[in-house]
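Bench notes, bay 3.
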Amino acid sequence: MDRIVRIKEMLVSNPTDCFLRHALALEYIKAGDDASARLLFNDILSQFPDYIGSYYHLAKLLERQGEVDLAIKWYEQGMAAAKNAKDQHSYNELQGAYEDLIY
């Protein structure tokens, strides 16, 4: 069974599960559907700004689409969220990607 279909089936009983929604967005990226992934990442982060993993993947998607200024904004927001959560690993990952982009 297709992973996207399976994740969507699981989301029926738990539609706000960030882990499943994030996984679905990643599957959309693998399938070449960046538009659906972008919408889903934006939705996750608007509802749950402390779901730090989505910042990195949304910013990377925006980089691929040539939206550098917007990617920078999301990296910065992700670094702030990671700092607030005291998640040094995520902060370092976001900062590394951010610095690779701006320098």
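Next record in the batch:
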Amino acid sequence: MIYLTQLIYIHEGQEEAFYEFENVVLPLLWKYNGQLLLRLRPTSSTFVDNSIEPPFEIHLVAFENEDGLAGYTQDETRKSYLHLKEQSVKSVVLIKGSQV
């Protein structure tokens, strides 16, 4: 299994574009043997300590293998909605790992 953690920062006022993008692309994970394990929208009260800007959302996604991840990133439907991601997402911190 491949695990991806994303700390997602969005442009202020672009929440609806972000939600529209997510509503289309997240269901595509299953097509590529991927799974959304967690989708968190943290608030200031949920942080015990932090030295970075709190993200808008945190996603934990798993794929069975690299082929599934590659297929998802190249999916034509997903690619047709990337303009919404580009419009709404300021930056993403991507952490890739495996279970130990």
